[in-house]
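Co-fold these.
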Amino acid sequence: MIHLILFGPPGVGKGTQSQRIIQHFDLLHIASGDLLRIQIMNQSDLGIKAKLYMDKGELVPDEIVISMIESILSSLDGKNGVVFDGFPRTPPQAEALDGLLKSRGEEISALVALKVPKEELVKRLESRGLTSGRADDSSIKTIENRLKVYDNKTSPVIKHYSEQGKYHPVNGVGMIDDVSKRLIDIIEPIVEAI
Ligand code: AMP
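Predicted complex below.
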């Protein structure tokens, strides 16, 4: 099975590009942020807890996110694999994911990281905030915090997978179709080699 991590800071285009990748390779999309927002909408205990962190642009504690992903993975079937979007976001989450896959006799195939300069990310997040209704996109202070949290807590995940020889950076600037093509060109040979 193919297990891709589509990686990068908030606003880099992970959600949009995940849709393209899942269609092209017939994969399942697992987006931790979307799953958490569903929990908030349902006002579950998990959602109520997670919202406290999300509204401030902080990470939801590892154990909450990991157990959420674990339960999704256990119900996985019928596809060629998964695109993880927004997960893992810390080295302990990466270790947990490796462990969960290993127990199924599988592993991460590649971490593909989209790269966009910070000024452009801020612009994209501000304009998304005008239409998305997302509290975490609607204040510059929260946007800045999310980018700081990415640098401090999430970017070390790159090292984790580059040590496994699975890190592939991709330029995320430009038209959506052009970025999709770059991603597919990187992913295709990886998929063929599996
Ligand atoms: P996203 O939709 O991926 O931008 O995520 C929105 C928010 O959900 C993040 O700013 C975090 O507060 C929370 N979140 C999503 N995924 C994770 C994760 N893997 N670990 C911790 N918090 C997460």
